[in-house]
Structures are given as C-alpha cells and as structure tokens.
Amino acid sequence: MIKYGHHRFPGKLFVVEGTDGSGKSTQLALLYQWLKAEGYPVFFSEWNSSPLVKDTTRRAKKRRLLTPATFSLLHATDFADRVERDIFPPLKAGAIVLADRYIYTAFARDVARGCDRAWVRQIYNFAVKPTVAFFFRAPLDVAVDRILSARPQLKYYEAGVDMNWADDPQESFTIFQGKILEEYDRMVEEFGLTVIDATRSIERQQREMREIVKRHLKKGRMIAAL
Amino acid sequence: MREMKFYGTPLPGVDVEPLSGKLIVVEGADGVGRSTHVALLRTWLESRGHAVLDTGMTRSVLAGRGIKEAKQGHTLGRLTMQLFYATDFADRLESQMLPALRAGFIVLTDRYIYSAIARAVVRGADAAWMRDIYGIALVPDAVFYLSIGSAEELVSRVLASGRGFDYWESGMDLYLGEDFYDSFVEYQTRMLREFDRMKGEYGFRIMDASRSINRVAADLRRGVARVIDEGRAADATTVQPLRIAAKPQPPKTEETSIKQA
Asked: Quick one: residue B235, left, alpha or beta (phi over 0 = left, psi -120 to 50 = alpha)?
C-alpha cells in the first residue's frame, strides 16, 4: 500500500476544504467550468458519494446508529471507494481530479467529535497527497449565518446533536463548526493547506484559485490540452 | 472483573471501566469449524447458567447488509472492503459486545480482528495500517485458534459441508489460480501463513482442529471454563485478599467441566 505523500501520478489533484457555508463548492464548480473550457480532461468527485456505501450511510443517519467511531469509519469507507473508483484511475491516466472535500474534512469533523487525532490520520494513510488543497476560510459567524439563513432545519449529525453539547440544534451547530474551524486552522501548517479568504468576492477568490492552479498545470506533463 | 484494555487507541467516547463479562474469540480459517464450535459452546455455557451473546463478521446492524450487497457486485475495491469490515466491527463492538460485557455476559465471537487483518494483508494491505485501525479493539480474555495443517485439509471440509467453494473464501478476487479449487488452495495457504505469524503476537491458544468435533469441543470447553474460573478466582481475591491470592486453584472445577463434557 502506497502511503500519503508517496504516490507518483502524472495527474493533478485539487481539493477544496472549509466549513459548511464557506463557499468552496461554488468555487470548485467555477474552476471545473474553466478547466473544461481550457480543454483539460477533468474529473469531479465529492464527499459522501460512494454508490457502495450510500445506502448504509443514509439508513445509519436516519436511524441514528452512528457513534464517533462508526461515523468516522463509515466515512472512511465511502472515501476509499471514491479513491479506488474516481481518484486513483484518472490520476494514473494523467487527468485532473477535483475533489469537493477530502481527508481534511474527516480530520476536522472526527476530531471535533472526539476521535483521536493520530488514529483518524492513520486510517486515511492511503490517500493521495493533493497537488493543492484549498482551505476556504470564513469566520465562524459568517459561515454559520450563511447556513442558518439558507436552511429551515439542521440535520441531526450535521448539527452535532449526537454529541450533547447543547439542547438547541442551532447552538450545537455553532459549537460544532467552531471546533471544526479550530481543527482546520491547526491543519494549515501540518498539511500545507492553501488558505483563501472566503469573505472576499466570489470573482476575486476564483481569480486567485485559477492563478494557483495554472502554475501547476504548466509545470507538470499533463495530457496536452486540446 | 477486569480492566478494559484496547490494542491501541481506545474507542472514542467510551468510559474505561471494569467489565464483568468475558470476551472469548474463536478464530481460524474458512471451513475449519468455527461456527459449529461457537454454537456448541453457546449451548454448553447456557446450560451452565451463563448468559451468552454470540457475534461474528458482517453481523452488525449498521454495515452488515451493505457489505453483503457490496460483495455481490464486482466493484468492491480492496481498501473499501477493509474499511467496510472495520465499520462493521466497530459497530458490533460498541452496540453488541461492550454492552453485553458490561452486563456480565460471556461474549463468543466467531472471528475477530485477526481474520480481518489476515485477509487484508493477503490482499496487499499494509499490516501496520490494519493494526492502527483495529487499535480500537478490546483485548479479548482468550483467543482459541482452530488450527489445521494445510489448505488441502480445508478442501475436504468444504466438500463435506456440501456448500462448495465460495468466491471470497477462494480469494477469487486475487486471481491466484485457474479455477475455484486452485485459487482456494493458494488463498487459504496464504491465510494460514498469516494466522501463523500472528499467533505469538496475539497469544492464540492453539486447538488442533484436525481431530474429531467432539474432541475439539471438549478441549474448547475446558479452555473456556478455565478462562471463566480464572475471573472468578480473581474476583474472590479482590473481595477477600487473603492467602488464596497467591495461587487460585481451578483444577477441581476443571475436572467437573471435563466430566460434564
């Protein structure tokens, strides 16, 4: 098994990370459109999307079967399927892969839920180190407001209600997001995340993102753009 | 009563407390007779008045069905498979085994983390990676390993059982041979080698499973009785820390248990 940081694939992997409401998915969608238009072979992969694990996750959330350990392992299973199906093969083939959320999401959430930092990192040892991992950093109140204003009701695990931090789901969500943000901040140095200020305009963030991505496309030997 | 001990990083959010039950593992290769022996042990333990919970791989409420469905298809990757099994294990540990152990049950488990590790390693996974993941596993009170000389011996059992060769038990996903038979022999040979490597590290109590069912069962009963009685003797010493503490004496009960067998 090849470990994190040791894969040598001709393709490039760009991932976006950040708390809920940081605007990262919007930014990745724009990046995708641009790369497509430039003629690159691009593949897109998002968190919690494994067809093999989907039913189990849905049932588990509905019936509230998950604990911090099983929440963590089930999401790792989902991620492994994404890696084996959507990430390794295109990277080996020299394509660009864009991932909406990556292992850092698991590190942030699972540790916020009380899992051991080292244990969670060991589980995801098999993941490829991204070419660039963008961290869209929005202050806690901004991100929380974006979610709460857009959503009438928070889901049980999303709000971290299972952790008994607070009776009120909104209050629990805010506590949870605060812990997650803390974990992200500590990962910036540990994993060399590229921080994007998510409070600035969408256009400005996208420009910055494209600048950075472009640099990596020039250097590498990608499949020639059409 | 004994302290809760984990192989590595303890389960998150679980209070470490003494457990009054016993966790007993029956391990061994496919077709070696594990499930038969677990069933026999269960009946015998219940007849002796013990409450028993038995469990085994893919029997979790959370992931059992998902794993079975995934194994029916042809898209289950190796990493995904190992992690799916780990999810199943964690769910059973938290929602079946631990509650039963707290309540004083004898928990019999048909396979434990050793089979999961062996299968993964045979499929090229990193042994250290597997051990890290399964660090959340409770160290059992005893591991009885049903040992067999060779994969060929397993073949005759698979044939005798009438169910024939199974795709996964034959390691067909590894392309080890031309057909189920060749693949089964090669795969099980590798599995036996992995178990063999683990026996010292994890303190397997070896049971020669090439003997008759009755003889193996009698040995298992004796072994299990000893594990239970050791616990009792230890409890007695905590209540009354007199001279008995130096040497708990189980042979009497052992005799009785053999006769009962």
From this structure: alpha
Q: Residue B62's domain is classified under what CATH number?
A: 3.40.50.300
Chain A partners within 8 Å of B82 (Cβ): 80
Question: Which tokens belong to A80?
Answer: 């492994």
Q: What are phi and psi of B142, to 5 degrees?
A: -160, 145
A1 falls within a domain: no
In a domain, B14, yes or no: no
Task: Write the pLDDT tens digit of every residue in A61-102.
Answer: 999 999 999 999 999 999 999 999 999 999 999 999 999 999
**B11 is a domain residue:** no
Q: Which residue of B has its CA nearest to A73?
A: B87
Q: Return d(Cα A34, Cα A206) in angstroms, integer.
A: 10
In a domain, A225, yes or no: no
Position B240: which residue type?
A: Q
- Environment class of B254 (CB within 10 Å of its CB; exposed 0-12, middle 13-18, buried 19+): middle
Say whether residue B36 is in contact with chain A using an 8 A CB cutoff. Answer: no
CATH code (residue A174): 3.40.50.300
Whole-model pTM?
0.90
Domain containing residue A72: 12-217
Which candidate from B9, B76, B87 shows the least CB-CB separation from A70? Answer: B87
Interface test with A, best of B60, B65, B79 (most A CBs within 10 A): B79
The number of folded domains in chain A is 1
CA B120 to chain A, closest CA, distance in angstroms equals 11
Which ipTM was obtained for this model?
A: 0.91
Nearest to A53 among B10, B66, B95 (CB): B66
Let me know if residue B4 belongs to a domain. Answer: no
Q: What is the pLDDT of residues B157-171, one digit of tens each?
A: 888 888 889 999 999
